Amino acid sequence: xxxxxxxxxxxxxxxxxxxxxxxxxxxxxxxxxxxxxxxxxxxxxxxxxxxxxxxxxxxxxxxxxxxxxxxxxxxxxxxxxxxxxxxxxxxxxxxxxxxxxxxxxxxxxxxxxxxxxxxxxxxxxxxxxxxxxxxxxxxxxxxxxxxxxxxxxxxxxxxxxxxxxxxxxxxxxxxxxxxxxxxxxxxxxxxxxxxxxxxxxxxxxxxxxxxxxxxxxxxxxxxxxxxxxxxxxxxxxxxxxxxxxxxxxxx
Length: 251
Fold this sequence. Notes:
Strand content: 5-15%
Radius of gyration: 21 Å
Order of helices and strands: HHEHHEEEEHHHHEHH
Helix content: 55-70%
Structural class: mainly alpha
CATH topology of the largest domain: Four Helix Bundle (Hemerythrin (Met), subunit A)
Number of helices: 10
Mean pLDDT: 77
CATH class of the largest domain: Mainly Alpha
Number of strands: 6
Low-confidence stretches: 1-31, 103-115
């Protein structure tokens, strides 16, 4: 799906909870502390470096952090998601300072973008203007096969929520929107929308938590919103579908 992969998992998706599991919770807190320490050390090494400047080899930096390989890899995932470093394999590879990552707001979450952020923001504005038309078309023209496939994609979104994987959720979400667009018999509308989604797809490298709502809570809410949208399409309810698409664009 994404032209550049920098997968990172927000801490609120990784926290271990549960009654009667104090030992496991203590282990989780210890692991989190080690990850935080490694993140801080590598971030300090990258601070002030020019984009593309080498910090060192992966092995050398791990030794400097004094953490296990698994803990160090988790720290690297977080650092890549935050746009602090990039990794390069092979001879001459290692850890390198990254260019600042542009952001685009997607509801209460953020999309980490590549350099062409203005194009993506324009694409998102056009997408939002087309989705009410596509929802109305889906209500009018959705077949039993269309509805069955929409519900299958909802299950993919549920699986991503269960896996606490925001990147998988975003991919499943956009697959659902593409499938809704494919229902319309209006070929021009369908093609314009799919091209717009392609632009967003090509330039999005990650989904990160927004400043006010934990990403896990936001994704739970978005899942329910999309369940309701598909239910409205199945019920042939124009008013409800339009109301839900308005809510979708606002949040």
